[in-house]
Amino acid sequence: MPGYNESRDTSDVMIRFHHVTKKYRRLTVVDDISFEVYRGEICGFLGPNGAGKTTSLRMLLGLLRPTSGNIEVQGIDVLHDAPKALDGVGAIVEESHFYPYLSGEQNLRQALRLHDLDLTESAIHDRLDKVGLSEARTRRVKGYSLGMRQRLALALALLQDPAILILDEPMNGLDPSAIREFRLQLMELARLGVTILLSSHILSEVEQLATKLVFISHGHIVGIEDLNAKTGDAQAYIRCAEPKRLKAWFETRQMEAALAEDGGYHLNLERAEDMASLIRQLVKDGMDILEARPYKVNLEHQYMARMAATEKERQNVKA
C-alpha cells in the first residue's frame, strides 16, 4: 500500500489519514487507509459506490469515529479536538440539508448564527453571487432545483473563507455551464492556497482539476498518484497510412509501441522534445503520417484499469 510522500515538507500536510479503519460489527467499510493531502492541492478521491469514500470523508469531518487509526487536519487529531482541527474547514458531504421554508439568504444567516460567525450583508450577497444564486437569494429553498441546492451548499461551505474544502459529489445536478463555473472557482481557490479533497464520479472534471489522485476500492487504497511529481517519459501517439509497416519500423529499432484501437500506436519517449525528431525520421523513411501528437492516458481509462485489476486480484484471492 502506498505510504506518505516523505520528500515533501510535512508542515504543509493539511489532511492525513494514518492507518484508518472503520468497521460495523463484522463489516469492514474502510480498511487501513493512509494518505496525505498537502496545502493547495486538489486531491481527487475516486472509487465506485460502496468503496468507502463517503465513510472516509465523514470520519474526516468528525461525523463518524474510526475503529482504529487516526485522522489529522491541519496537524490536529480530529478525534481528540475536532473543533480546533476543523476550524476553517468547509464541506459538502452527501445531500445537504436546509430549512426549506427559508430563503437561500436566510439559510446562510442561520448558518452564521449556528457557527457564531460574523459576516456583513454584502459578504453574504457576495457568497451567493459567486455560486450564481444572487437572483434566487430571496426564494424559498423548497422551490430550489437540485442544482440550485448544490450551489447553496457550496455557498455554505465558503462562508468562513475555508483553508480546506471537503467536497463529496458537489457537481450533482449542475448543468454544464454551472459545472464549468464551479471548476474555475475551485482552481482559483487552489491557486490561493486552499486545499481541496474532492470525491466525484464526473471523471472528466476531476481530470481537469486534480493535482493528486487517490483511488479506493472495497475500503482499500489501491493507488496514489501525485500528478505534479510526474517527470521523465513523455507519451506519443502516431498513426500512419500503413500500420503494419509502422509496426515493423518500431520493431527493427527495438522501440516498444502499443497498438491502439484505431490502428495507431502509443509509445514512450525520453523527452517530449523527441517527438519532432521521431516525425522527421518517419518522414525520411517514407512513412505517410496521418496523425502525430502527444498522448496522455485519460482518467476514465486509468480508473477503469485500476478497478478491473483490483477486482481481478480479489477474485484470485477468493479462488
Description:
By secondary structure, the protein is an alpha/beta fold. It contains 10 helices and 14 strands. Strands 6-7-8-3-9-10 form a 6-stranded mixed beta sheet, sandwiched between helices. The radius of gyration is 23 Å and the shape is globular. The N terminus is likely disordered.
Map the helices and strands:
Blueprint (H helix, E strand, L loop, with lengths): L12 E12 L2 E12 L3 E5 L6 H8 L7 E6 L2 E2 L4 H4 L3 E4 L11 H11 L6 H10 L15 H12 L6 E5 L7 H16 L3 E5 L3 H7 L2 E6 L2 E7 L7 E7 L2 H10 L4 E3 L5 E5 L4 H11 L4 E6 L4 H20 L1
Parallel strand pairs: 3-8, 3-9, 6-7, 7-8
Antiparallel strand pairs: 1-2, 1-4, 4-5, 9-10, 11-13, 11-14, 12-13
In a few lines, what is going on in this structure?
The protein is α/β, with parallel strands linked by helices.
Task: Name the features.
319 residues; alpha/beta; Rossmann fold; Alpha-Beta Plaits; 2 domains; 10 helices; 34% helix; 27% strand; disordered N terminus
Please give the alpha-carbon distance between the first and last residues.
22 Å
Kindly state the percentage of residues in helix. Answer: 25-40%
Total beta strand runs:
14
Instruction: Kindly report the average pLDDT value.
Output: 86
How do the strands line up in the largest sheet?
6-7-8-3-9-10
Evaluate the radius of gyration. Answer: 23 Å
Question: Residue ranges: pLDDT <50 for 5 or more in a row?
Answer: 1-6
Please state the second-level CATH architecture of the largest domain: 3-Layer(aba) Sandwich
Number of domains: 2
CATH fold-type name of the largest domain? Rossmann fold
- Biggest sheet descriptor: 6 strands, mixed
Question: Number of helix segments?
Answer: 10
Percentage of β-strand residues = 25-35%
Class based on secondary structure composition and strand pairing: alpha/beta
Oligomer: single chain
What is the CATH C-level name of the largest domain? Alpha Beta
Shape: globular
